[in-house]
């Protein structure tokens, strides 16, 4: 899907089109490759649905996930998701050193699909659990698909009658120090139909640019869940095909550590999606760090008497250094995208002049500078005056009927 970043990265992938079912058996043979690819890794998440269904059906259905089939052929042939961790010289050397190891030469999205398929087969009881867990963690290493450091080593409760799931989680418990342990645990629960119940959510707009400098607006959504591993994790229901870079992962850690939620045992899932629900599967850079911190703060504000929600017309593009916002790049493309969506934008104070210079002439009044996370939190909320007048009006109306 789209490669999005503070700086330009890979070319955009197929268009994000949501397609209906192709029939009772979901026959994909008559659809062009680019449509099938979009169904697999875009808004519909067709491959994830196949894996969940296979866990439920078991037996032959689960084994077919790892057999040659239309979905994996398309991912091998049509996917443009290139490994971030390999340049051409490294790739040639890798192929020469391990000509028989086809998994090492899988495209990034094919590798993700096969890792999910192997996990589904283990949950269905038809393949070795240890090798399936290792395959998923190996893929996560290459894709930099990681959770923030967990504050607990407690096992996730699963209840009775879940022998295969218990086996998978048991093998994962042996890898508690792995950066993707939390994500892998949630992926197993997702495929087994045991996704933790959502307690609270928050959402905020984020701005990115692609390889051509064109801006895009994405929605960052956080979901605090009950009983999941503590920490901040990619949501496996949407982000299983993600590739990120180390700078982005570091920004998530910084956002988590500066938030009050970091001192709790909370389990938070995150997703980044474009208009239409297609996940952002290729992310580089630290420009969403401040947005994560603001969205995390909202999850912790639910006990306040007056809880100001995040303004849906507000977007943030800034990095983090402690509690200070930092300047990022790509302002021209980002602000054009914000203008198209009638958004106002919060930027770091030390990048405000650069943002002003890059902004469309009639957009400068929509920019706000923020020095700290507290500044960004205040400026991203709906106006308190409106909320207070609404509460007062409701109180007066109620008094009239007493």
Describe this structure in words.
With 402 residues, the chain is α/β, with parallel strands linked by helices. The chain has helices at 33-41, 46-57, 59-63, 70-78, 88-97, 108-123, 129-143, 163-173, 181-191, 236-239, 246-258, 289-299, 331-340, 352-358, 373-380, 384-400; strands at residues 3-5, 198-209, 215-225, 231-234, 243-244, 267-273, 282-284, 314-317, 319-321, 324-326, 344-348, 367-370. The model is unreliable at 6-25, 88-102 and 385-389 (pLDDT under 50).
Order the strands across the largest sheet as they lie in space: 4-6-3-2-8-11-12
Protein structure class:
alpha/beta
Strand content: 15-25%
Number of helices: 16
Write down the secondary-structure element order. EHHHHHHHHHEEEHEHEEHEEEHEHEHH
Rg, please? Answer: 22 Å
Which descriptor suits the 3D outline? globular
Q: What separation lies between the terminal Cα atoms?
A: 58 Å
Total strands: the figure is 12
Poorly predicted ranges? 6-25, 88-102, 385-389
Q: What is the average of the pLDDT values? A: 86
Q: Report the major sheet.
A: 7 strands, mixed
Helicity, in percent? 40-55%
In short:
With 402 residues, the chain is an alpha/beta fold. The chain is built from 16 helices and twelve strands.
Write the layout of secondary structure elements.
Blueprint (H helix, E strand, L loop, with lengths): L2 E3 L27 H9 L4 H12 L1 H5 L6 H9 L9 H10 L10 H16 L5 H15 L19 H11 L7 H11 L6 E12 L5 E11 L5 E4 L1 H4 L3 E2 L1 H13 L8 E7 L8 E3 L4 H11 L14 E4 L1 E3 L2 E3 L4 H10 L3 E5 L3 H7 L8 E4 L2 H8 L3 H17 L2
Parallel strand pairs: 1-7, 2-8, 4-6, 5-7, 8-11, 11-12
Antiparallel strand pairs: 2-3, 3-6, 9-10
């Amino acid at each position: 899907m789209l490669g999005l970043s503070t700086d330009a990265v890979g070319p955009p992938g197929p268009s994000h089109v949501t397609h209906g079912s192709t029939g009772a058996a979901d026959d994909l043979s008559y659809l062009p490759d680019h449509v099938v690819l979009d169904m697999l890794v875009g808004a519909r998440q067709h491959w994830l649905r196949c894996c969940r269904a296979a866990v439920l059906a078991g037996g032959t259905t689960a084994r077919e996930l790892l057999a040659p089939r239309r979905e994996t052929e398309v991912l091998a042939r049509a996917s443009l998701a290139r490994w971030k961790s390999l340049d051409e010289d490294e790739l040639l050397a890798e192929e020469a050193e391990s000509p028989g190891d086809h998994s090492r030469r899988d495209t990034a999205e094919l590798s993700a699909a096969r890792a999910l398929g192997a996990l589904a087969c283990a949950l269905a009881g038809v393949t070795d659990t240890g090798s399936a867990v290792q395959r998923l963690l190996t893929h996560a290493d290459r894709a930099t698909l990681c959770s923030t450091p967990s504050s607990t080593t407690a096992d996730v409760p699963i209840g009775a009658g879940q022998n295969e799931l218990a086996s998978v989680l048991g093998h994962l418990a042996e890898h508690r120090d792995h950066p993707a342990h939390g994500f892998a645990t949630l992926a197993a629960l997702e495929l087994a139909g045991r996704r933790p119940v959502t307690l609270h959510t928050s959402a905020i707009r984020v701005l990115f640019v692609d390889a051509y400098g064109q801006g895009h607006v994405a929605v960052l959504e956080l979901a605090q869940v009950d009983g999941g591993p503590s920490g901040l994790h990619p949501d496996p229901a949407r982000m299983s095909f993600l590739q990120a870079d180390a700078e982005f992962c570091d920004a998530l850690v910084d956002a988590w550590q500066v938030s009050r939620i970091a001192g709790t045992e909370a389990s938070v899932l995150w997703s980044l999606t474009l208009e239409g629900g297609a996940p952002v599967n290729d992310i580089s850079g630290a420009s969403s760090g401040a947005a994560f911190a603001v969205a995390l703060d909202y999850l912790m504000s639910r006990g306040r008497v007056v809880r100001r929600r995040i303004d849906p017309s507000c977007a943030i593009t800034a990095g983090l250094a402690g509690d200070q916002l930092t300047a990022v790049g790509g302002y021209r493309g980002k602000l054009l995208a914000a203008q198209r969506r009638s958004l106002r934008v919060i930027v770091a104070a030390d990048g405000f002049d650069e943002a002003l210079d890059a902004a469309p002439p009639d957009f400068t009044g929509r920019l706000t500078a923020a020095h700290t996370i507290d500044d960004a939190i205040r400026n991203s909320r709906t106006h308190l005056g409106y909320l207070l007048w609404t509460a007062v009006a409701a109180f007066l109306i109620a008094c009239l009927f007493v």
